[in-house]
Amino acid sequence: MTESSVIAGATLNWGVATDVGSVRSANQDSYCTDPPVFVVADGMGGQSAGDIASREAVAAMAGLAGRVPVTGDMLTSSLAEARERISKIEVDGRPPGTTLSGVIVTVQDSVPYWMVVNIGDSRTYRLDAGGFAQVTVDHSAIQELIDSGDINPSSANFHPIRNIVTRAILPKTDYPADVWLLPMVAGDRILVCSDGLTKEIEDGGIEEVLRTIEDPQAAADELVRTAIEAGGHDNVTVVIVDAIHADAPTDETAPLPVLRG
């Protein structure tokens, strides 16, 4: 069911859907939709206790719930807490890890902003009057090959190293997160998802669903359903947040990087 809240002077509606998929035996994705925090974490499937790691990371981020404005220092502290929580997970072999991506609603100069955070290869997208675009940049071996021009993006999902991430939340390594501030504008639609969605559906197909299904819960359900029908080779989690009203700045600037790692 679509939920709604007034946060930092903005009226937001949101929906969330998750599924274990058609192949995996357990869902290692976790999420938080506790305003002002809307994030998805994908436990690293090749490592033990990835499901616990994603839950611990989300629990750390949930500590920001109800706290507006959220500052960069507060976010940094939450990520440090996530690493600390994961370090306490008792496992045999390699320690678990997780990705994390999403938005935190905050305020600057009395107007609401999206604080976008990303570490790993889960993604955050924005659909607005200017179009549909991925805000985050994947921390992955594939993305490095794309950036260097060694492979075409269209072949990324079939490459043998497609599952290798270059940054994650891990207990013993302080990988930096990328963080951006985007001015919130009424009509914005934010999509946060694990790679179980983007490895099954091309961006064009995702955009079509976001444009044609108005209700965020119905759109989230449809994206997950479509990913499962396309193969469902991984867990799939989708969070959609709509800005129905926002006291946006009159000068709509480009995304402002505040902590680009």
From TrEMBL:
Pfam families for the chain: PP2C_2
Annotated ranges, domain PPM-type phosphatase: 13-243
InterPro entries per the UniProt record, alphabetical: PPM-type-like_dom_sf, PPM-type_phosphatase-like_dom
Any coiled-coil regions, as ranges: none
Protein name from the UniProt record: Serine/threonine-protein phosphatase
Species: Antrihabitans stalactiti
Native organism taxonomy: Bacteria, Bacillati, Actinomycetota, Actinomycetes, Mycobacteriales
